[in-house]
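Reopening this ticket.

The earlier resolution said the output was attached, but the attachment link was broken on my side. Pasting everything inline this time so it's all in one place.
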Amino acid sequence: MAELADLEDPKIRAVNERHGDDHGVNLTKLRAVAKRLKTQQELARGLWATGDTAARLLALLICRPKAFERDELDAMLREARTPKVHDWLVNYVVKKNPHAEELRLAWFGDPDPVVASAGWGLTAERVTKKPDGLDLAGLLDTVETEMKGAPDRLQWSMNTCLAQIGIEHPEYRARAIDIGERLRVLEDYPTSPGCTSPFAPIWITEMVRRQNEK
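Inline output:
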């Protein structure tokens, strides 16, 4: 914890706090600490228990994703209120855990929009990698009726799911683009030069173009 405190940079903290993250550690330096520590599950649990955001990010880098029980991950997600911790927990840990599908189903319709956003994030992953058994038309129905008014993080995950359906499944592409064009969600999101806009019609069209060029 002392080492993490020494890595604190007020300028990084100021930038992160604008995005809802309460830490000031350079993530490249944090990854270097994790590389030195290697995998240490019990240390990871101890770091997580501190509640400190930088410590939790380090915990997610040195943990053993498959070692967590279902209820443990559920509790961790409900405690993970800062965007970066939430994002790393879902992408670095839950996706690699044998309970991922069970948790996806449990979180998908959760009344807490932050928890539900994790369910939608895991669903977007399945749309891309293991779509068999998913009701893609039903997902588009839900996006069409609920995404416009959804809280930010849930809206972002729903939008990702919409785009992935359009990118990966040609039979639903026209409908996905149409939904995006009518809802206009993230149309004005600031996008850095060289990056693709998260506005679904632009995102879908660009990714399909790249696939066709290969």
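Reporter confirms the inline version is readable. The two ends are 47 Å apart (CA to CA). The CA atoms of residues 206 and 212 lie 10 Å apart.
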